[in-house]
Amino acid sequence: MKTWISKTIGRDSLRDVSKRSGIGLSTLSRRLPDDLTPEQVISLAHAYDVPAIEGLVAAGYLTEADVIDVAGHSALSDATDAQLAEEVLRRMKLGGESAQVYDLPISRVGGMDEDERRAASHDQGGLEESDLD
């Protein structure tokens, strides 16, 4: 938390921080750096135009997992179909040889068991119809 406070307020005096954030000077001197309420963390963040989430994580009110969960769900919900398709394609391309099975028509892959899919993903020449029987 001390690092977040230091990065956020820089060299501002407690009086300056109080004026900017609307948090009383006596409250700041009692609570800084490790005893701010969530509301005070948010007030500081807003006053200094920094993400409040980072302060809430630094103070221990949220975990990184909390933030990732919300961000991931929000990003997926807000993404267009084109953005989702681009991301799926990007991930498939990153898969290297193991993603080669995805270059085949689904009708050629659908009836394969796990061993056949694994073998196909390492087969540079692709699948033959006889591989699926």
Any overview of this molecule?
This protein is mostly helical and 133 residues long. It folds into two domains: 2-65, 434 Repressor (Amino-terminal Domain), CATH 1.10.260; 80-132, no CATH class. Helices cover 62% and strands 0% of the residues. Helix 4 crosses helix 5. The longest helix has 15 residues, at 64-78. It is elongated and about 70 Å long.
**How would a textbook summarize the main sheet?**
none
Low-confidence stretches: none
CATH architecture of the largest domain: Orthogonal Bundle
What is the terminal-to-terminal distance? Answer: 61 Å
- Derived from helix and strand composition plus strand pairing, the structural class reads mainly alpha
Give helix and strand order, one letter per element, not per position: HHHHHHHHH
Q: What is the count of helical runs? A: 9
Report the sheet-strand fraction. Answer: under 5%
CATH C-level class of the largest domain is Mainly Alpha
What fraction, in percent, of the residue positions are helical?
A: 55-70%
Structure summarized in a few sentences:
This protein has 133 residues and is an all-alpha fold. Helix content is 62%, strand content 0%. The protein is built from nine helices and no strands.
